[in-house]
Design goal:
The protein is an alpha+beta fold. It contains 13 helices and 19 strands. The strands form six sheets. Strands 6-5-4-1-7-8 form a six-stranded mixed β-sheet, with helices on both faces. A three-stranded antiparallel β-sheet has the order 9-12-13. A three-stranded antiparallel β-sheet has the order 10-11-14. The termini are far apart.
Length: about 450
């Protein structure tokens, strides 16, 4: 069965005798007459595989003929000359496997046909004024009709409550796309590592990595690439990427491609001139050991906090060994003193969104237990900022190492394992392209 139709059926079963309304993304202007690149809404794409704006999916359980209906833009020769082909109403049922399709302009008029008989409407208000208005108009029309016969939705629910737990477990087809995204991201990182030389600018490394993503078929970066050198390695979300690379410093790159709406998310840290200093190596070894300890914990039945706790223990021990923390291990963990240097969590869900859908805590408010098919990042780091009261020789050193980990029935699979991260691998590859710095 078509995977999108299968997901629609699963969602329809989950909402019982009710109705769900899932809008697409819309185009958004960046400035006068220039739009941001269009990127489809993740929930809508998950259920349709359709990549056009200005559409709405309706999943109905009470309608006699239609279970899934798509409202979309009709063909328009004049607009298609400017913007490219549209699928159109006539082709949509055959191409997308929906029961019926209608012009988007008919959405408010036809929606009452699918609302009548339902008690709950699954729709997220507040994301689009136009769609909200159409839904409210349709509800009013449904109430008028129900005076004679039928039931009107009197309760509202966010479809994410049902849909996002579905998205948390990846299918074989989704994982195939994510493995390909990881492979493309690998090539981007290899290109960036080879290109790195003192005298280049951060944006040149950004250009090298993102050019490789596009060359290999990815449509976007999954998020704005972080390419920070020197002191900027200690800023978690540094995205200006404008400074010159200096010998003797580190370069932290946090980047990933997006392929067919699925994200990759990787961080590697390497020396600009191809050789770690003693202090850089000391910090790097701690972070790598923490990541390896955390990844070893990722397996079915383990709670999410357990792999974070494993990373925290290794990081705290290392900081104590370097004299960046003092006191006992237990005290530093209990009082969270390690957060001076390691202030973020160790991972997040990954999928259609780089911070993907899905709860992090269960119905008992306990950390979620891992299950096969979940994909999480594992990304410990240490950041020694200049304003800290610590040994001067460590200041300005930031290291993060991040991989994408699939939970399997047997344990885990590191989707991004092939991207170099061991010290000897990095020192062998960094700068090997020997590109001259720009004047």
């Amino acid at each position: 069965m078509d995977p999108y139709k299968q997901r629609r059926e699963q969602l329809r079963r989950a909402i019982g005798g009710d109705v769900a309304v899932i809008p697409s993304a819309r185009t958004t202007l960046r400035n006068n007459d220039s739009a941001y690149p269009f990127r489809q809404d993740s929930d809508f794409y998950y259920l349709t595989g359709f990549n056009e704006p200005d559409a709405v999916l309706v999943l109905a359980t009470q309608h006699g003929e239609h279970s899934d209906v798509l409202f979309l833009r009709d063909r328009d020769r004049d607009r298609e000359i400017w913007d490219g082909d549209r699928l159109g109403v006539e082709r949509a049922p055959r191409e997308l496997g929906v029961d019926a399709a209608f012009p988007i302009g008919k959405f408010a008029e036809r929606l009452p046909d699918y609302l009548i008989g339902a008690t709950t409407l699954y729709y997220e208000f507040g994301r689009s004024d136009d769609t909200d208005r159409s839904v409210r108009d349709a509800l009013e029309r449904t109430r008028e009709r129900a005076r004679h016969k039928g039931r009107v939705p009197h309760a509202f629910a966010d479809p994410a409550n049902v849909l996002h737990p579905m998205r948390l477990i990846k299918s074989d087809a989704e994982l195939s796309t994510m493995r390909r995204a990881a492979a493309i991201t690998r090539e981007g990182f290899l290109t960036a590592m080879r290109a790195t030389l003192p005298g280049l600018y951060e944006y040149e490394i950004e250009a090298a990595i993102e050019n490789e993503y596009l060359r290999l078929g990815a449509q976007f970066t999954a998020y704005e690439s972080i390419v920070g050198s020197g002191d900027r390695t200690t800023t978690l979300h540094y995205v200006a990427n404008r400074e010159r690379l200096e010998a003797g410093t580190l370069l932290l790159v946090d980047s990933g491609c997006e392929l067919d709406c699925y994200a990759s998310d990787v961080t590697r840290t390497w020396p600009v001139d191809g050789r770690f200093t003693g202090e850089q190596r000391a910090i790097y070894d701690i972070v790598l050991a923490a990541q390896e300890a955390a990844i070893a914990c990722v397996r079915p039945g383990v709670r999410r906090n357990e792999f974070h706790d494993a990373a925290v223990k290794v990081v705290t021990e290392g900081l104590l060994d370097l004299g960046l923390l003092t006191g006992s291990l237990d005290e530093n963990i209990e009082e969270k003193h390690y957060r001076t240097y390691f202030m973020h969590g160790t991972g997040h869900w990954l999928g259609l969104d780089v911070h993907d859908a899905g709860d992090y805590r269960d119905e008992d408010d306990e950390p979620m237990r891992l299950r096969p098919g979940m994909v999480t990042t594992v990304e410990p780091g240490i950041y020694v900022r200049r304003d800290l009261d610590c040994a001067e020789r460590f200041k300005g050193i930031g290291v993060r190492i991040e991989d994408d980990i699939l939970v399997t029935a047997e344990g885990n699979e590191n989707l991004t394992q092939a991207i170099p991260k061991r010290v000897d691998e990095l020192e062998a590859i960094v700068g090997s392209a020997r590109q001259p710095a720009l004047a």
